């Protein structure tokens, strides 16, 4: 057996160097990473430098300053774009049982997926709505910071390698249909069928700086705010509060919490385990 | 054995490590004053009750999977949540990360060990146990490089020796100890504080 030992020599920015890079990106490109969680951001930058084979802070700065195409790649690689269909099946089960029946009373159901990455969660939502007979009344808005994610999401491409996991997740979430009816297999990838994508509007939105743009009955923002510090988390929670209709629902990741935020009194819990909350009024 | 003021004991394990983790927790004295963080590989989308399993150990407060941004407390045992990387911020709070698996693992032992080492430096003990892959090798190096103590389970006593073996090859400064000596080490650790 050949065992490869991952003893790479990734460059780790010091706190001062990290601040310099954050300022450089803000001033030259307008993207604001000042309120991102430091440890994970440092790791992501080290990962970018490793992939681009940059060994020093100077090389990183040189590329960021002089090569705008490098920045495009850097931004795509820096942000975490990992996602899954029906991740945390019990969350989707609670959506089916506790949230969708309440949404059914609205003539038009507006849902926002904030930080949608390549769209796997919003496709899952679309399937849930279809199975609840609500898809034709639903308008889904899926936003992300990263244009490359949105481009991929609009095509509806998902990884064929993960289909087996997704199918198991779907079944555990209470799905009763044949999961393969929701996509078309195409060599190494699968494409979500058009009827489950036509109600989704993909658009760029930056949670750190952009404003309220509509009123929603449900906002899903799962495993996005873990990359933010508490200050930015508070800002985004206020944005969500102001974007929800009275009694509107908010879903966050199952390891995220309202407990440490300013808005905790303004929400009530719908599912403690699945971290689904409801705006009080 | 050591006169360092230890605030953090981080334990990493994969296949075959659960019984060892349980015996280490059982060995903790009732009044242990450090924080224990456990990273164990497990499958990602199957409901896991490992936290409950580990909470049935006498003398030890309930093992808890932290939420994002939760403050780290002394005299507590934390378990890295399923399907996230567990990181530590300089203000001694946890933060979670859902980025790509490292060495096919999420949670990655390397990621947590490195993050702990950066914050707790020489106040860290990193313990790497049985496993069938090479996660943790880099983590043990990082603990030692930051002045902490690196301990690796003696591969001869490990159910799956690949992981401790790989870590020892790369880390000459790591202590290679059988389980019984690791438990003794943990007991003494508390006496010294």
What does this structure look like?
The complex is a heterodimer of chains A (281) and B (193). Chain A has 281 residues and is of the alpha/beta class. Chain A has helices at residues 15-29, 38-51, 57-66, 68-78, 89-103, 120-131, 147-155, 163-172, 230-243; strands spanning 109-114, 138-144, 157-159, 183-186, 189-192, 200-204, 216-221, 244-252, 267-271, 276-279. In chain A, strands 6-2-1-7-8-10-9 form a seven-stranded mixed sheet. Chain A has a three-stranded antiparallel sheet with strand order 3-5-4. In chain A, β4 (183-186) and β5 (189-192) form a beta hairpin. Chain A starts with 14 loop residues before the first helix and ends with a strand. Mean pLDDT of chain A is 93; it is low at 1-7. By secondary structure, chain B is of the alpha/beta class. Chain B has one domain (8-192): Methylesterase CheB, C-terminal domain (Rossmann fold), CATH 3.40.50.180. In chain B, strands 3-2-1-6-7-8 form a six-stranded parallel sheet. In chain B, β7, α5 and β8 form a beta-alpha-beta unit. In chain B, α3 (109-120) packs parallel to α4. The longest helix of chain B has 14 residues, at 179-192. The model of chain B has no long low-confidence stretch (mean pLDDT 91). Chain A binds chain B through residues 3-8, 15, 37-40, 43-44, 80, 82, 87-90, 165, 168-169, 172, 223, 225-227, 230, 233, 253, 255-257, 259-260, and chain B through 45, 47, 65-70, 81, 83-84, 87-90, 95-100, 102-103, 110-111, 115, 118, 134, 137-138, 141, 162, 166, 169-170.
Beta strand count of chain A: 10
The interface involving the most residues is between:
A-B, 35 and 35 residues
Helix content range of chain B: 25-40%
CATH topology of the largest domain in chain A: Rossmann fold
Q: Superfamily at the CATH H level of the largest domain in chain A?
A: Vaccinia Virus protein VP39
Taken as a percent bin, the fraction of beta residues of chain A is 15-25%
Shape of chain B: globular
Taken together, the total number of domains of chain A comes to 2
Order of helices and strands of chain B: EHEHEEEHEHEHEH
Mind telling me the CATH class of the largest domain in chain A? Alpha Beta
Q: What can be said about the biggest beta sheet of chain B?
A: 6 strands, parallel
Shape of chain A: globular
**The biggest beta sheet of chain A, please?**
7 strands, mixed
The oligomeric state is heterodimer
Strand order of the largest sheet of chain A: 6-2-1-7-8-10-9
Task: Name the structural class of chain A.
Answer: alpha/beta
- Regarding CATH, which class of chain B? Alpha Beta
């Amino acid at each position: 057996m050949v065992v490869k030992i991952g003893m790479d020599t990734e460059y780790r920015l010091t706190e001062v160097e990290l601040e310099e890079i954050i300022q450089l990106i803000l001033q030259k490109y307008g993207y604001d990473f000042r309120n991102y969680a430091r440890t994970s951001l440092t790791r992501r930058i080290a990962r970018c430098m490793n992939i681009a084979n940059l060994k020093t802070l100077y090389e990183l700065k040189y590329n960021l300053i002089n090569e705008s195409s490098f920045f495009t790649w850097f931004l795509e690689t820096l942000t975490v774009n990992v996602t899954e269909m029906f991740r945390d099946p019990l969350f989707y089960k609670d959506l089916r049982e506790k949230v969708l029946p309440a949404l059914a009373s609205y003539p038009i159901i507006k849902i926002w997926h904030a930080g949608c990455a390549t769209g796997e969660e919003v496709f899952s939502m679309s399937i849930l709505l279809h199975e609840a007979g609500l898809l034709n009344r639903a308008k889904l808005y899926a936003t992300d910071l990263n244009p490359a994610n949105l481009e991929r999401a609009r095509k509806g491409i998902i990884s064929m390698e993960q289909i087996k996991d997704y199918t198991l997740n779907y079944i555990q979430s209470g799905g009763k249909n044949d999961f393969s009816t929701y996509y078309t297999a195409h060599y190494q990838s699968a494409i979500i069928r058009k009827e489950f994508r036509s109600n989704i509007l993909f658009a760029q939105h930056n949670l750190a700086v952009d404003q309220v743009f509509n009123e929603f009955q449900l906002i899903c923002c799962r495993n996005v705010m873990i990359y933010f510090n508490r200050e930015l988390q508070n800002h985004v929670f206020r944005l969500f509060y102001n974007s929800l209709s009275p009694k509107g629902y908010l879903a966050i990741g199952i390891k995220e919490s309202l407990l440490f935020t300013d808005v905790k009194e303004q929400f009530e819990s719908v599912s403690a385990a699945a971290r689904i909350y409801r705006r009080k009024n | 054995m050591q006169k360092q003021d230890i605030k953090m004991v981080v334990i990493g394990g994969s296949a075959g490590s659960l019984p060892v983790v349980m015996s280490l927790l059982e060995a903790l004295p009732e009044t242990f004053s450090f924080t224990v963080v456990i990273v164990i590989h497990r499958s990602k989308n199957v409901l896991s009750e490992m936290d409950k399993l580990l909470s049935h150990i006498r003398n030890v407060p309930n093992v808890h999977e932290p939420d994002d941004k939760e403050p780290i407390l002394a005299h507590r045992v934390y378990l890295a949540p399923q399907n996230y990387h567990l990181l530590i911020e300089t203000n001694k709070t946890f933060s979670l990360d859902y980025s790509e698996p490292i060495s096919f693992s999420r949670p990655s032992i390397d990621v947590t060990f490195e993050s702990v080492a950066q914050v707790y430096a020489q106040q860290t003990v990193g313990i790497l146990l049985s496993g069938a892959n090479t996660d943790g090798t880099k983590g043990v190096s990082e603990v030692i490089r930051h002045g902490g103590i690196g301990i690796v389970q003696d591969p001869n006593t490990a159910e799956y020796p690949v992981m401790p073996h790989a870590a020892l090859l790369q880390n000459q400064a790591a202590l290679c100890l059988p389980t019984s000596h690791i438990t003794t080490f943990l007991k003494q650790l508390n006496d010294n504080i």
